[in-house]
Amino acid sequence: MNVYHSKYNKLAGTSYREIEGKARLIYKSEVAKSKRNPYVRSAFFKKEKVFLALFWSHLNQKTRRCRKQRLKYFECALDLLKNTTCAPITKPNPNGRNELVHRFGGITKDSELFYVQVKEDLKSGEKHFISVFSPE
Predict the structure, then answer these.
(1) If I label 72, which of 8, 58, 63, 127 is the partner at 20 to 30 A Cα–Cα?
(2) Could you report the per-residue pLDDT of 1-20, keeping only the tens digit for each?
(3) Model's pTM, two decimal places?
(4) pLDDT tens digits, residue range 31-47?
(5) 3-state helix, strand, coil in the chain (%, to 5)
């Protein structure tokens, strides 16, 4: 599997509150660029939109410790979504019949591996950023 080398490090911080504040600032800068649903344009999907809002509802289903670990990779994940041309691992979603899940691999600037998941609705063609996580 090819991986994308991000130009960013993980978000620094020791507490969940501190890391979430930094991640929300990055998210707000992306929200300001769009009028309705926040999105980024993905190089892999031929500059199609990848919507970001589903990430936060998915993240809130996790424990506080898990949320903190995932939010550390938020800036790297957005960089990967915007710029990667590496092919992901694509599988049908076990929870939805008309959906595909794309899993992209990435490496932070300080050489830590992480994965980004994007859900694609086959009927509408919409893509949603679901999750970012480390393999540990």
Answers:
(1) 127
(2) 689 999 999 999 999 999 99
(3) 0.92
(4) 998 888 999 999 999 99
(5) 30, 30, 40
